[in-house]
Amino acid sequence: MAKRKAIPDKIRLQVLKRDNFTCRSCGKSPALYPEIQIDVVNLEIDHFKPHSKGGSNSLDNLHTLCMQCNRGKGNDESLNITIQNKIRILLERINPKVVESIENNGNARVVANENDYQELFRLCELTDS
């Protein structure tokens, strides 16, 4: 079995910066805990399509995950759930026409129950898109 190529440090830094040093699955970031001197959140670079399944080290195949999300995912591509995916799933649960309106018009009016609204608000704060 061939040894896989390590992700170059320059690429790792580009991915971390692009993802705002934030786990793209749960939203954890070391910046959320600046007063604590120990590592509360360990960020790792993960492959959407794993090396074991033919994935590459290209930027579009990499994203930032915290150690807990990455280790729990392993090489299961079906567990590539990002914050954007979670927002989409929540919007589709509220009303599938919301997603359609956003895709067609770039915006939508959303009416949700309090719990869904709070979760949607929390997730949107974790992403800039």
Task: Quickly describe the structure.
40% of the residues lie in helices and 8% in strands. With 129 residues, the chain is mainly alpha-helical. Strands 1-2 form a two-stranded antiparallel ribbon.
Describe this structure in words.
This protein has a two-stranded antiparallel ribbon with strand order 1-2. The chain is mainly alpha-helical and 129 residues long. Helix content is 40%, strand content 8%. Helix 3 runs antiparallel to helix 5 (114-125). It is globular, with a radius of gyration of 17 Å. The chain has two domains: 9-79, no CATH class; 83-125, no CATH class. The protein contains five helices and two strands; from the N terminus they run αββαααα.
Explain the layout of strands and helices.
Elements: H1 9-18, E1 43-47, E2 62-66, H2 67-73, H3 83-94, H4 96-105, H5 114-125
Antiparallel strand pairs: 1-2
Helix pairs in contact: 3-4, 3-5
Shape: globular
Query: Order of strands in the sheet with the most strands?
Result: 1-2
For the biggest sheet, the summary is: 2 strands, antiparallel
Judged by helices, strands and strand pairing, the structural class is mainly alpha
| Alpha-carbon distance between the two ends | 40 Å
Beta-strand percentage? Answer: 5-15%
Helix content: 25-40%
If you compute it from the alpha carbons, what radius of gyration comes out, rounded to the nearest whole angstrom? 17 Å
Detail the poorly predicted runs. none
Mean pLDDT: 78
Helical stretch count?
Answer: 5
Elements, N to C (H/E):
HEEHHHH
Taken together, the total number of domains comes to 2
Number of strands: 2
